Amino acid sequence: QVQLVESGGGLVQPGGSLRLSCVTSGFTFTDYPMAWYRQAPGQERELVAVIGSDGSYTTYEDSVKGRFTISRDNHKNTLYLQMNSLKPEDAAVYYCQLWGRLATWGQGTQVIVSS
């Protein structure tokens, strides 16, 4: 059974940084590209970033390019999202997910950007 457990969110001031983690289990992590999504209140869930199964490929939603970095540790079955220069519009609940196979969503981790 696939499990996705996100953590690392919190309250940060505009311009600040956070590093999100997603610990995974129940599948062969190295077989799948992975993705981060986010959902702000009253809005649909949107794709933020994708990383290839070996980490050699990454792609980002336009609004986060140059500020966010997706990475993975295939030895720890863990996905990361480094978020720098955070803006109020980045506030959302962030989720990780397999790319190419939809697993049950985790609980997400909430990011609040406010002064």
Account of the 3D structure:
The protein contains no helices and 10 strands. The protein has 115 residues and is mostly beta strands. The strands form 2 sheets. A 6-stranded mixed sheet has the order 2-10-9-4-5-6, with no helix packed on it. A hairpin with a 4-residue loop joins strand 7 (68-73) and strand 8. The mean pLDDT is 97.
Quickly list its features:
115 residues; mainly beta; 4-stranded antiparallel sheet; 10 strands
Mean pLDDT: 97
Number of helices: 0
Task: Give the helix/strand class.
Answer: mainly beta
Give the topology string: H per helix, E per strand: EEEEEEEEEE
Radius of gyration: 13 Å
Low-confidence stretches: none
In what range is the share of β-strand residues? over 45%
Number of strands: 10
Helix content: under 10%
What best-fitting shape do the alpha-carbon axes yield? Answer: globular
Strand order of the largest sheet: 2-10-9-4-5-6
